[in-house]
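=== RUN LOG ===
request id: a7f3
mode: sequence -> structure
chains: 1
length: 305
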Amino acid sequence: MNDRPENHRAPTADTDRGREAGERIDTLLSALSAAGPVARERAEALVGEIVGLYGAGLERVVGLLEPEAVERLAADDLIASLLLVHGLHPHDTLTRVRTALDGVRPYLGSHGGDVAVVEVAGGVLRLAFSGSCRSCPSSSVTLELAVEDAVRAAAPEIETIEVVAAEPDSNAGVIPAESLLARIHSNGEHGGHWIGAPELAQLGAGEVGGFAVAGAAVLACRVGDDLFVYRDHCASCGNSMAGAALHRRAGFGSGAAVLRCPVCRAHFDVVHAGARLDGDGHLEPLPVLIRSGTPQVAMPMEAAG
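=== RESULT ===
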């Protein structure tokens, strides 16, 4: 559920400022429309000239650098966004999408699932999801948030994400495409929001804590260096899991952790999407990423709003 910084280049504060600047420009241009079409056309022409001037300068800088130096520039989110705007990024769309998806695979793997690129055609990206626990009530929202966020940051030219059916896996049920992100547009419409939760960073290895994120009660656990977040709601008895503790799963390695409900004593696999080990059902996982050193949790719309 957690993507470490070395595995996933989560959007940084600089990237967020870049997006906010673009949104402010669009807002200003829209405001100028009130003065009439001529005023807007002149404003757009001015912005175009400025962007073109900076783009020409950036192209000249890139042309003077060795390929290794350009790769290092592309590894910085803010600079990468500028390279994309001016068509100077060293990697094509497919390469950037695949790299972004590699970053979220640890989270998908916590659900026992995976994702593969089927096709990139124009502004449409087609993905196939496989595996995962089809009984997870929050898979649709959490996968949408994790995958869309990664793709939008790496390849803003992708306008639509479509899910196609994957080949059945004999060892795991395929995530039904209709239950996932059948179609995602890059117009800012999300199934939820990323909410900053800096207090989660205070958890030490093996610790469990209850927190309020966007007004919703959540339970956070740290297993080694990884942070896992769930709704504070036992899938067995329906009670809060306040006071729950982590236990090592007998016969498994140190990374296998079990969360036991303090009320009904049901056991859940923390690392694998909160699947119950002694019965049916499982906890509701919430994606968590580290952004600029601060944990952020993806809260579904009904909780974040």
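=== NOTES ===
The CA atoms of residues 134 and 175 lie 6 Å apart.
The helical segments are 13-32, 37-64, 67-74, 77-85, 93-110, 139-154, 301-304.
=== END ===
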